[in-house]
Amino acid sequence: MTKKWITAFAAMGMMAALAMSQPAMADVTVTDMMGREVTVEGDVERVVALTAADCEILYALGAGDMLVGRGEYCDYPAEVFEVPSVQSGYDTNIEQIIELQPQVLLMGTMAQSEEQIEQLENAGVHVVVSDAQDINGVYDAIAMIGALTGKTAEADAIVQNMQEEFAQLAVETPEDPETVYFEVSPLEYGLWAAGKGTFMDEIANMIGLKNVFDDVEGWAEISEEQVIERNPDHIVTITMYFGEGPTPEEEIESRPGWENITAVADHSILNLQNNELSRPVPRLVDGAKMLYDFVYGGAEAAEAVTEEATEN
Description:
It is built from twelve helices and 13 strands. Strands 8, 9, 10, 11, 12 and 13 form a six-stranded mixed beta sheet that branches. Strands 5-4-3-6-7 form a five-stranded parallel beta sheet, sandwiched between helices. Strands 1-2 form a two-stranded antiparallel ribbon. The radius of gyration is 24 Å and the shape is globular.
């Protein structure tokens, strides 16, 4: 046997020994938020996330490098724009997703179908569904994605921090609390409000406010007359402003018939256009703090919060 062959056999033996010494990749099993048990063979390294919330949670966990595709509405943090985008929601494009060769697709329940899930799973893509509708749902989503990506410790730390931060903001609701109206769709597109069972409603209660639409479930279409009649002390809008024309606050104040609403008369309108209160992610804590400071911090603090919300 030549020296060359001896060297080759030795190298092969070393490689085999090294392979045997490496721990076998363990399968990952999670129960998604539709109650489906999903098992992924080996470590998860390639993920496509269709919802902005799931994308944001991945980055919060330190798993952003696993993201190989994103829904077109994923916009936070800024580095997510470096990731290829795919169509999502009603326009979900199965071919685009499969081309990215993900092991896992994170998708929401809205506009997704069993047929789409079946197509993806037949192509070898494991589908994991998230559906956070309240704060506990946010905790569940963070824990689920943490388990999926091997970031369990990070997920536990994020959830614990959120719980502690919320506990510091919590106040006992007074007998006659101030009221708030959460406008999640502006008049231009038809008024919608956050009602009972949403994280906005939970946060309002947490900081001692009463949601004027806590008698409706979830996200609900409402009328101008209802807002005027319920006369909120504060208004929170999430309308984007692109620097031209009236700001969302100015637009609300200019609506005919709204001038006698307490929030409008007192200029107590907060625009949180960066999804601090409208997306089920760890930044809900930031939104809760901003709302608390806006309501209880006095005029100067309220002005500072408004400026910070606009700058961000």
